Amino acid sequence: MIDIANYDNDNIFAKILRKEIPSKKVFENKYVYAFEDINPQAPIHILIIPKKPFCSFIDFSKKADLKFIYEFTKSINLIAEKLEINEGYRLITNIGKYGGQEVPHLHFHLLSGRPLGKMVST
Ligand code: AMP
Fold first, then answer.
1. pLDDT more than 70, % of the chain
2. At 63, phi and psi to the nearest 5?
3. Does residue 43 surpass a pLDDT of 90?
4. Average model confidence (pLDDT) for the chain?
5. Is ligand 1 within 6 A of the CB of residue 48?
6. 102, 106, 108: residue to mutate for ligand 1 pocket, most atoms within 8 A of CB
7. What are the residue numbers of the active site?
8. Does ligand 1 come within 6 angstroms of the Cβ of 94?
9. Is residue 20 scored above 80 in pLDDT?
């Protein structure tokens, strides 16, 4: 089980941020890095991660400063605009065990490219 209480500097997204392993970059600025999910669940499946060591949304909501939260949030829609996603999209962030989080670095999944159906699988 992953630990989302203590940041692991060797998690796979930390390595992607440090360019130690490759990724397909979609967008980058001072605050965020966005890249294609290796196992896409929709025609468009982008992962958006902060350039700071937050384990999950819990950590982010408690520790990120206002400027960072503002810029991170704005960046998400900038990515959607850059990709010309005009028909809408879904944002998901999985948190901890019940959320199904696999990588302990905060990430938002941006999914689109077709109607995505119901929100939660049964
Ligand atoms: P989650 O279950 O919310 O933690 O999502 C982790 C996501 O990371 C999954 O959708 C994986 O397909 C994706 N993933 C894992 N390793 C890589 C990688 N090296 N490059 C891109 N996406 C990855």
1. 98
2. -115, -25
3. yes
4. 96
5. no
6. 102
7. 107
8. yes
9. yes
